[in-house]
Amino acid sequence: MGLIGSKRKEEVAPEKNVQKTVGRVKRSQRPDDMIAKYAEILKTRGILPEYFLVHESKSSQYIDEDGDVANEFYQETMSDGEKKRLCRLLKNLRPKGKERYAIPRLKHDIPVVMWEVQKPEK
Fold it and tell me: Tens of pLDDT along 88-117?
């Protein structure tokens, strides 16, 4: 009894705008700062950083039991005598998964002006 202080170390709250040093480059943890730096590189050097490219995405296609690949599968069924109708198949299908692009594509939500048109001066 009679302990004056606690032996537990006080936890320090992390600061929001801390900069990390990686090699010789200081990197901010805020994504807005990173995007601004990428935009500056794009504007001055004309180089498109890897951050703006997408190399693979989730495919919207499915694979059926036979190994056929398509967005939708239908089966012809007989009903009411000789009436034929197409019914969409939903069973025994599995998603194709991720699809790798042959040529990388741009992200859909790039917050940077990629091309700026200026009027010629007279």
Answer: 998 999 999 998 988 888 888 877 766 777
Could you give the C-alpha distances from 85 to 4, 58, 92, 107, in angstroms and in order?
Answer: 84, 31, 20, 41
Q: What is the mean pLDDT of residues 80-94?
A: 86
Lowest mean pLDDT among 5-9, 35-39, 104-108: 5-9
**pLDDT number for residue 16:** 52
Distance (Å, whole) CA 81 – CA 112: 61
**Residues 85, 111: Cα–Cα separation, whole Å:** 48
**What is the Cα–Cα distance from 44 to 39, expressed in whole angstroms?**
9
Between the alpha carbon of residue 56 and those of residues 35, 61, 62, 115, the distances in Å are 21, 14, 17, 24
Q: What is the C-alpha to C-alpha distance for residues 55 and 106, in angstroms, rounded to an integer?
A: 9
**Edge-to-edge strand ranges of the sheet holding 94-95:** 69-70, 62-63, 94-95
